[in-house]
Amino acid sequence: MGLGLFATGCGSESAGTPDSGTPDDAGDGGITSPADGGGPPASFVLGLVLNDGVDERAPRGWPLVLMGIAALTDDVPRVVLDAASLQLSIEDDGGAFQAWAFDVPMPLDGDVVLDDAKAQFEVTWALRGDQTEALPLGRYTARLSLGDQTSPPVTIEVVDLAPTSDPVESATRTRRRAGLEARVALLRADAPAALSAVDTALAEVPDDVALLVWRGKANAAADRVEDALFDFDTADARVRAENDSGEPAVTISENRRPVLERYFQGAR
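Request: output the structure for the sequence above.
Response:
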């Protein structure tokens, strides 16, 4: 559905401007290197992900998040990218560019070095729920570009969701919307708003693991370290009780670790 696509490019140690590459869908067999067409080998890949990467629909009234990714390829030890040249463009079905007023444009200044210590660079753009309410319904195309390199398109279908009486679908919508609201609030350094969104959703979907993790992140951002640890531990226990593989608990542990370090350092 075009939710997490990648294009290859070649970085420069001086300016970081990539040469043109051949895009391919990473979800359909990997990355196509410019070397396949006789050019230099790819040194980085560009990607773009809509919201949580699950659905190309963007409901009006929900936050909308686009995350751009530049990642080092396995066979290149180091590349320097010109972050100021990274651009996000939105077009409607007729090809007209849209001036969406993203509320959380991340700073794009100076060079970004990708190497063994930092193999991936992420930048996020977002619209609040009240901003998406004003978007016209329809299909849009988002692209990420850096210099002469452009990522494959990502489709955004702005929709109005019909009411549902299905409890499973209702819970899913509540979880996804609250997660996006918390994510945007935390990007704006507004921990109270993130906590409010998650607590409201937890009243409808009690003990939901994803929401508990978001509440843990929000509590950590608010310097409520003990509350954050409680949320992560509760989520972890629930996952382990329901899933013998323990795989989702790994992500919880990764979020919990820096909070636990703060706890032992006395940040309470």
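The CA atoms of residues 59 and 161 lie 6 Å apart.
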